[in-house]
């Protein structure tokens, strides 16, 4: 199984052996990208490991937040099979792309208020996706799909049973602020104003540089508790590529009074992990691909 994660500044590759049980991570690699040459980087990375390209391996692509737009909206009153194609017109006033340039798909919102029927739409540029898909098809004919980072990362937090806010941010990508309950993603917010949170120095954090993060965590908690009328948030889980973890953790805890902890890597990925969470999207993609390939099986964590 080949999984690629595309971000503003690079492409990550994970090669894993997957079946109904725990994945086995074989390769974890990364290559920087200039001028949006994601397809070229995908091919260069994969060609470093030619023996794993034999036999049309399953392949999945994860798009980073800078490469897509995520919008929640009312479900169009159409048959399910027609919704994805119709979204480009429903979203024309909600995204920055023209309808002719949109490729869109959606997933259901897990928390619905009485009388609501919301979906989460994922929107990407058609030209960019065509180039990525062309590169993928040259590597394998067995394409599992192209998914959003918010969907892939969520597969790494299925152990969160109590209401929790997860903050995920790496490199210079927008941050994902996600709320989980009973192992399921409940709320997803993409916050572009936090794309530099990983780069804060210790001095900047000590001077309150982490406060914008605390504010956004509180907004996610307020929305979940007050607007969606759900149980109070119990903890905050950080998966941020900061070199100053203790300082950032302490500031969020002091600001909000929540229990704050750092995310953990799954056991099967720890040996090859980057340890800075930059590989979370590609690892989550492995888990998502496993679900797609073995949908009827009881999945082991």
Automatic annotation (TrEMBL):
Q: Which SUPFAM superfamilies match?
A: Actin-like ATPase domain
Q: Which InterPro entries match?
A: ATPase_NBD
* Top-level taxon of origin: Bacteria
Name-wise, this protein is MSHA biogenesis protein MshI
What is the scientific name of the source organism? Pseudidiomarina sp. PP-1MA
Q: What is the lineage of its organism?
A: Bacteria, Pseudomonadati, Pseudomonadota, Gammaproteobacteria, Alteromonadales
């Amino acid at each position: 199984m080949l999984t690629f994660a595309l971000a503003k500044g690079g492409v990550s590759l994970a090669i894993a052996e997957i079946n109904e049980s725990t994945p086995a991570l074989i390769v974890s690699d990364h290559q920087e990208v200039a001028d949006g040459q994601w397809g070229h980087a995908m091919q260069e990375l994969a060609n470093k490991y030619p023996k794993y390209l034999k036999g049309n391996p399953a392949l999945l692509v994860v798009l980073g937040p800078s490469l897509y737009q995520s919008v929640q909206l009312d479900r169009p009153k159409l048959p399910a099979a027609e919704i994805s194609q119709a979204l480009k017109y429903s979203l024309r006033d909600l995204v920055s792309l023209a309808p002719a340039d949109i490729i869109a798909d959606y997933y259901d919102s897990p928390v619905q208020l009485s009388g609501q029927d919301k979906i989460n739409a994922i929107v990407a540029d058609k030209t960019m996706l065509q180039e990525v898909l062309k590169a993928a098809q040259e590597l394998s004919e067995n394409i599992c799909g192209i998914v959003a980072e918010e969907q892939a990362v969520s597969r790494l937090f299925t152990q969160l049973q109590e209401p929790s806010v997860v903050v995920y941010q790496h490199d210079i990508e927008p941050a994902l602020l996600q709320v989980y309950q009973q192992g399921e993603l409940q709320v997803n917010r993409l916050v572009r104003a936090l794309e530099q949170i990983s780069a804060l120095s210790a001095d900047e954090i000590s001077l309150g540089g982490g406060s914008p993060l605390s504010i956004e965590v509180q907004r996610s908690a307020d929305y979940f508790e007050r607007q969606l009328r759900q149980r109070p948030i119990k903890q905050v889980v950080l998966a941020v590529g900061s070199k100053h973890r203790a300082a950032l953790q302490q500031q969020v805890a002091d600001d909000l009074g929540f229990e704050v902890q750092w995310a953990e890597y799954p056991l099967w990925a720890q040996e090859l992990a980057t340890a800075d969470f930059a590989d979370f999207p590609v690892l989550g993609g492995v888990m998502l691909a496993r679900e797609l390939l073995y949908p009827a099986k009881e999945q082991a964590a």
